[in-house]
Specification:
alpha+beta; two-stranded antiparallel sheet; three-stranded antiparallel β-sheet
């Protein structure tokens, strides 16, 4: 499902205008982006939790050449599904 289909389904389910739903989704993504850049977690009840995690630096080996490379530390966004949603999907 792409963004356009998601907006269409939500707008038909809520009986709202597609532009309003698109603005709502854009606002949600903006909030997740700003809060995750501040290393904060965002919990959506019944859906899941968006968390930022710091990955430590590590050494990796290129398979073709055997050359060792240092991968720098970075911050990644992860998503953990809530138990409510997990049980509905089973």
């Amino acid at each position: 499902m792409d963004n356009k289909e998601l907006v269409n389904r939500i707008s038909s389910k809520l009986g709202r205008n597609k532009t309003d739903v698109k603005k709502l989704l854009d606002a949600f993504v903006a909030v997740v982006r700003t809060r995750s850049s501040e290393l904060d977690s965002i919990a959506v009840p019944g859906f899941g939790t968006f968390e930022t995690r710091k990955r430590a630096e590590r050494i990796t080996v290129m398979p073709g050449t055997g050359k060792r490379l240092l991968v720098p530390p970075r911050v990644v966004l992860s998503f953990k599904v809530s138990n409510v949603l997990k049980n509905k999907l089973k």
